[in-house]
Specification:
- The chain contains four helices and no strands.
- The protein is an all-alpha fold.
- Helix 1 (2-12) packs antiparallel against helix 2 (17-29), helix 2 runs antiparallel to helix 3 and helix 2 (17-29) runs parallel beside helix 4.
Length: 70
């Protein structure tokens, strides 16, 4: 349901950086890391200031970071 909500938010406003970031978190929860990386990349492109907060959230899911990065 969270993923569907993010997709709806993105359809309504394709420049909604937080929707992409939250989509990335939802995808991480589903263990769809490659798709999550794409969502986070789009989030950071739209709003680089969000990177630090989302990186902290990523570490909660993956202690070694997304794709094993630290």
């Amino acid at each position: 349901e969270a993923l569907a909500d993010c997709d709806t938010a993105i359809r309504l406003n394709e420049n909604n950086a937080r929707a992409y970031g939250n989509k990335g978190l939802a995808l991480l929860g589903l263990k769809r890391d490659a798709e999550a990386r794409q969502a986070f990349d789009r989030c950071y492109t739209l709003n680089p200031a969000l990177k630090e907060s989302y990186e902290k959230s990523i570490l909660a899911f993956r202690p070694n970071g997304l794709d094993g990065e630290t």
